[in-house]
């Protein structure tokens, strides 16, 4: 009888510890993942990058053009779907871009910071390589239509993005800030709003 009691106590302890570990992993994911897109958020992105031995490369800071108009015209639920589809589009671009494939073995990260802002870290990429990736993303996006299923029919939405580029310097915060400034300058030149 005593053996059964201790075995049951042991199994219960193992199960409780497993539940605790699973809950901690889920909480960690929630803290470091954007719930809308499933991509790393700013904290998750910076944490992933800080764990790297070498931090050389370029950062692309992307912001959808005139996104407020989508929310105003179609509603926030459609806007959320556009954000999800744009995140998936970016994931496909990162996987399929020749320039990225050529940066063999490098870990390129994409993150959804907030709203309609995304960041891509191109590990080991020079400024000219980052410009090629930027041009390819913008070019491919021109041919992309996001199909959103609504109760009263499907909506097809095309979007544009503005991208700022900065070479990695001494910190992610500074480099991201520089890429954000470049993106805002490019938006101003294009005459578009956030």
Largest sheet: 4 strands, antiparallel
Output the helix-strand order.
HHEHHHEEHEEEH
Q: Give the amount of beta strand, in percent.
A: 15-25%
Instruction: Quickly give the structural class.
Output: alpha+beta
Q: How big is the Rg?
A: 21 Å
End-to-end distance:
70 Å
- What is the 3D form? extended
CATH 4th-level superfamily of the largest domain: Reverse transcriptase/Diguanylate cyclase domain
- Measured as a percent range, the helix fraction is 55-70%
State the total count of DSSP E strands.
6
Low-confidence parts: 98-105
For the record, the count of structural domains works out to 2
Number of helices: 7
Q: How much is the average pLDDT?
A: 82
Tell me what the CATH architecture of the largest domain is. 2-Layer Sandwich
- CATH C-level category of the largest domain: Alpha Beta
CATH topology of the largest domain: Alpha-Beta Plaits
Strand order of the largest sheet: 2-3-1-6
């Amino acid at each position: 009888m005593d053996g059964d009691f201790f075995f049951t106590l042991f199994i219960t302890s193992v199960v409780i510890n497993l539940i605790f570990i699973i809950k901690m992993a889920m909480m960690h994911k929630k803290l470091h993942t954007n719930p809308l897109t499933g991509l790393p958020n700013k904290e998750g992105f910076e944490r992933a990058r800080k764990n790297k031995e070498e931090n050389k490369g370029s950062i692309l800071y992307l912001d959808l053009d005139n996104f407020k108009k989508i929310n105003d015209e179609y509603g926030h639920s459609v806007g959320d779907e556009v954000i999800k589809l744009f995140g998936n589009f970016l994931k496909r671009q990162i996987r399929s871009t020749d320039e990225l494939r050529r940066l063999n073995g490098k870990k390129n990260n994409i993150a959804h910071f907030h709203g309609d802002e995304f960041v891509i870290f191109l590990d080991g990429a020079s400024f000219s390589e980052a410009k090629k990736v930027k041009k390819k993303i913008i070019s491919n996006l021109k041919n992309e239509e996001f199909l959103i299923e609504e109760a009263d029919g499907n909506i097809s939405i095309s979007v544009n993005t503005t991208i700022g580029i900065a070479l990695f310097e001494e910190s992610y915060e500074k480099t991201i800030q520089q890429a954000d400034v470049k993106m805002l300058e490019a938006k101003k030149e294009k005459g578009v709003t956030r």
